[in-house]
């Protein structure tokens, strides 16, 4: 959904935006009911290759795609030939389509599949079953299903829940537990966790470990931790940044933490294409500060060639704190062979 998630969603204090919360409650009940019925009534398709679902319980901003990208990398390191399978949100093609980064644009297939296709086999398909069949036909040994937890059309070998582990300054990844639109949840917490096989908590680089209170929420489920790590330092000199992701404030905070001389930061709507007017405004802000322009890799792939020439991407990747523990668990779950 093309928006920035409101920060009050992530507060457990129900006194934040109380009138808005109450006004949106009836819509939340409808959303939760529709999701539950879809999951209960759909007979899933059994693919002939392992399916690793990477999903979350909240609307946007948990780090699903970076984790999916890292799992794909780990599988390739183990000698497998996995495929990423995405819905292709924001793209005009319905698929199944094998994404070719040299041919397709973000307008064709969406920004996240275009990023995944830079590393290896990636497909988009509105119909996940047809996408799984196409992935197998293309030679995939495994399917890593991006954003599949609330989609029951494919039977998953394992279902992973990605959780934003930042719990500072009163923020809590599930807010007060309210379902969209009165809160960040796609479905009630207990129902979502009941279908999960493990949890991956994505931590800020400056947090030594996950909040014990957060870990306790997941009961007996295995919990792994990972972090978004920059591939390189931010560009030198003064910079003006912008990002069109669900939680743009995290990009701003990460740039500053990495040592960027950030003079201004412009948040955009999630998945939004940079309009000419926005581009001119961002450039004018850079001129005010005699600064360069920097954005996320996800935003950069949506830019036109002309825009890319004047804007630098700052790529970050998810890395598990203990990758061997995660791949050993995949072996125990019969997703990969014993190592």
Structure write-up:
- It is a single chain.
- The chain contains 12 helices and 13 strands.
- It is α/β, with parallel strands linked by helices and 339 residues long.
List the helices and strands and how they pair.
Elements: H1 18-41, E1 51-55, H2 64-77, E2 83-86, E3 97-98, H3 106-109, H4 111-117, E4 122-124, H5 128-137, E5 143-146, E6 158-164, H6 189-194, E7 198-203, H7 212-217, E8 223-230, E9 238-243, H8 248-257, E10 261-267, H9 276-288, E11 292-296, H10 297-300, H11 305-308, E12 312-314, E13 316-320, H12 323-332
Parallel strand pairs: 1-5, 1-6, 2-4, 2-5, 6-7, 7-8, 9-10, 9-11, 11-12
Antiparallel strand pairs: 3-4, 8-13
Task: Estimate the global geometry from the Cα principal axes.
Answer: globular
N-C termini distance: 40 Å
Q: Enumerate how many helices there are, as a single number.
A: 12
Low-confidence stretches: none
Strand order, sheet with most strands: 3-4-2-5-1-6-7-8-13
Proportion of residues in extended strands: 15-25%
Major β-sheet profile: 9 strands, mixed
The amount of helix comes to: 25-40%
Structural class: alpha/beta
Number of strands: 13
Rg of Cα set: 20 Å
Mean pLDDT comes to 88
What order do the SSEs take from the amino end to the carboxyl end, as H and E? HEHEEHHEHEEHEHEEHEHEHHEEH
